[in-house]
Amino acid sequence: MQPTVLVVEDEIPLVAMLRYNLEKEGYRVEEANDGQEGLVKVAEDKPDIVLLDWMLPHLSGLEVCRQLRRNPETRNIPIIMLTARGEESDRVRGLDAGADDYIAKPFSPGELLARIRAVLRRIRPALADEVLTYEDLVMDMAAHRVSRGGREVKLGPTEFRLLRHFLEHPGRVLSRDQLLDAVWGRDVYVEQRTVDVHIRRLRKALNAAGETDLIRTVRSAGYALDSSGES
Ligand code: CA
Hints:
Layout: E1 4-8, H1 12-24, E2 28-32, H2 35-45, E3 49-53, H3 61-70, E4 79-83, H4 88-96, E5 101-104, H5 109-123, H6 125-128, E6 131-134, E7 137-140, E8 145-148, E9 151-153, H7 157-168, H8 176-184, H9 192-206, E10 215-218, E11 222-225
Parallel strand pairs: 1-2, 1-3, 3-4, 4-5
Antiparallel strand pairs: 6-7, 7-8, 8-9, 10-11
The structure holds calcium ion.
């Protein structure tokens, strides 16, 4: 799976350098050359991460960052701010506005790529690593394959997405609404009990006879990927 990086930057040579290095690493690259266009592109392309220059025409990077964080549709998209300013107070302002990380120009491509990987790993593990694991459960994103204790587990597409979301948030209790948003998307109307149906199928596929149930039901709260066996 190729993560999409949106580069919002008005220095065209820098955009070209970033595009070259990011594409070499297997990222898909979209670009915008001012703040307004950046907001439009985020809405259109739903990038996996945004590299956002601070000094942009029309709308500053800081303002773009604030607007992205205010909008529920874009609130969770990771943002790395790029800036010529290296002062600590700017760094704090950037992070206050909701940026996930901050890198001062000039930076080396290697440094930036490392930061991107780190942010993606923290926020969207499935994009940074090709393999997600929990206990004896292994999900290979590239091969689209799941196994438990070496035994292959066959999953339907919805159960696969459900399990992936659990593996990205191990141990955390996820409500039915959160699961609906993450797996079915915000634009689709699906009843909450649909989640229960797919959880049941997922459990059946994952837990062969005698194996610990890896999915915990938390009464009136939701579900968690959790092998502790409590309920
Ligand atoms: Ca600039």
